[in-house]
Amino acid sequence: MAFVVRFGWELQWDRWRGQTLTRQRQRAQWVAQQVLKLGPTFIKIGQALSTRVDLIPVAYVESLAQLQDNVPPFSGAEAIAIIEAELGTSIRSLYRDFESEPIAAASLGQVHKAQLHTGEAVVVKVQRPGLEHLFALDLKALRGLLQMGARWMDPVRYRELEAIYCEFFSILYQEIDYIQEGKNADRFRENFKDQPRILVPKIFWRYTTTKVLTMSYLPGIKINDRSTLESCGLDLKEINYLGISCYLQQLLQDGFFQADPHPGNMAVTPEGSIIFYDFGMMAEVAAIDKDQMIKTFFAVLRKDTPVLVETLIDLGLLERTADMTPVHRMATFILDKFTERPIDVYAFGEMRGEIVAMFEQQPFRLPPQMTFVIKSLTTLDGIARVLDPDYNLLKAAQPFVKQFALQDRKGILGELARQTRSLVTTRLQRPHPAQTAVERLQSRLEAGDLTLRVRSTAQERQLRRISLMLKSLMYTCWTGFTLVTAAILLTGGQGSWAMAAFVLSALGAIGLLRCLVEVRLRENLDRFGD
Q1: What are 1-15's pLDDT values in tens digits?
Q2: Rounded Cα gap, residues 53 and 61, in angstroms
Q3: Domain boundaries, the chain
Q4: DSSP class of residue 75?
Q5: Is 296 exposed, middle or buried (CB count within 10 Å of its CB: 0-12, 13-18, 19+)?
């Protein structure tokens, strides 16, 4: 917990103070080292953050990128001992040749190159020893952090985070079952059997157990190694399109997708095919969610704000509030501005009122079933931006989805076809925006649903500022009082009571930090709109 608090504080402090790049890199290296020490759970989180150059500073992205394929290995002798114990015979009986030095190491295991007695070149994935014990410790630590955060969370938000927490560890425990991973790989390969440019290693079941996985050797270029890909004469935009098409098929057609698509799990051959390596963290999408995602995508293409908001509500990503106007206005703004080009955060200045209103209402939700869909898409988005800085997911996906809709008219594909016809009809019959606005106003007047919103922005700012100042003062007094009490108790030999007082002081400090962050966020929002 101390690491999480310190990381968040220093990240925000660097942003406030405008620290030099050298200082940021020093902090980023420290963060990467701490994540490695914390073990596999936090390495997974760091790997996800390493693709999000739009969320954290570049220095942190560069340091966390080391977690993709530079995790320290365990000894070759230990790996051989695990293989022999799992498969019940000597390493020489199993493989004609086995390299004790791993060719790659990841958070949950490492990979050794080998050759079967039949001559096939293979790689052997060996699970890190003691993972279940480490997971149990991480489970307990994160549970404590979650319960501590419940003091400041809305009960609904807390239940959502708790469900995500349970889903995350459920999938992590599945990921350390290599038999299940092998089955996932076979299923994934079957789904893409008609696409020769999507490659999946073959699983050798005779040499596979829950902790050892043997598969064919498929070397490739790391998918975010832009310079090497360009030197091979590959078209990066074409690779982007292939990757996006692959993921859209996983989500919209198969309902079975790789939930951990960081660059260490994907590679490109010199011929331009994409190789998928890791099938431990897989997730499924229910048919009803596939329907809603298709409707969401076509609502975006039609720039149909009401349908878009409704589908997001059906997916559980939005909650109905008393006044949905800010959400509708923000959705319309995004559809008008960014469906054909990358999002520019500075363009949101003109929507300051809606940002503040949504910040207060907090209509957003994150249901567990959609958590890994969003995680995969955001990670994929980060990879795609490395290959093509001008990339836009919606624009890039349009050719695939339109072509996909024409291939079949049954089930999900039928829904795609219906949505495509609706898109064409809407584009041809769309009335003038002014006419639409007048009709909407008329219908709201007739229904008695027209609300006049009068806001005193300056007064609201002052009231919020006073409220936050009072909260900060309260937490400051609380922290100081309990800290002094702890010191007095400690000098008096009351160690256990002093420890309790120190814990209360730490809780007060966290509350104070939260208030300071909120003050800074409010100031940024106010400055954003001025």
Answers
A1: 444 555 555 555 555
A2: 6
A3: 2-68, 131-175, 222-453, 460-529
A4: P
A5: buried
